[in-house]
User: What shape does this take?
Amino acid sequence: MSKSKAQKKALAALNFDLFQLENITPIAPATIDTKIRQHQQQVPVSSPKRIEVSNSRLPSIAELQQMYNRFNWQYFGGKLPAVHIEYSSRMLCAGSCNPREKLIRMGKKYHQIFPSDIEDTLKHEMIHLIHFNHDANFRREARRVGTSVRARSHPSLRRPPKYLYHCKSCGAEYPRQKRLRMASCGKCSRGRKFDLQFKLRLKKS
Ligand SMILES: [Zn+2]
Ligand SMILES: [Zn+2]
Assistant: This one.
């Protein structure tokens, strides 16, 4: 079973190569499918007010605010509060949201590599204004709004890993920042869920 170039690219962007116990709910395939579709179709033009995102230039803060207002009406009935939006040049992930401060930060480095993810990131962070964690409520909203469930970051932007896990069965290595408790190999686990038989082992920390 060979993956297309678009699929591989989409999977790489997802940082979604292993399965953890908490993710048993079948959201993963849907998320990856959405991501692959986005990469293949280059996102359909849905509104005349749509801001074109080009490689050379990221949207201005004013344009991000317009985008925010449009999504607020389109998906949330205009109920989300006014927020402050800014770019962060230090942040390595796609975006972050502080609901208490009503602040959404967009990762500059990430979007310089994946400029077409801007809308996806903004929608994801907008849901965080209502749902702090990636819980069932968050995932339901993400499906409804059509955005990725997982916070994304790009491998080339990550800090050197603190832990190195590996799969005894296939030898795949999983460098991670955080300790993994119950995680199994994404290549070996059956049915896209945690599989004790292929539990990842700590190689070094
Ligand atoms: Zn998130
Ligand atoms: Zn494996």
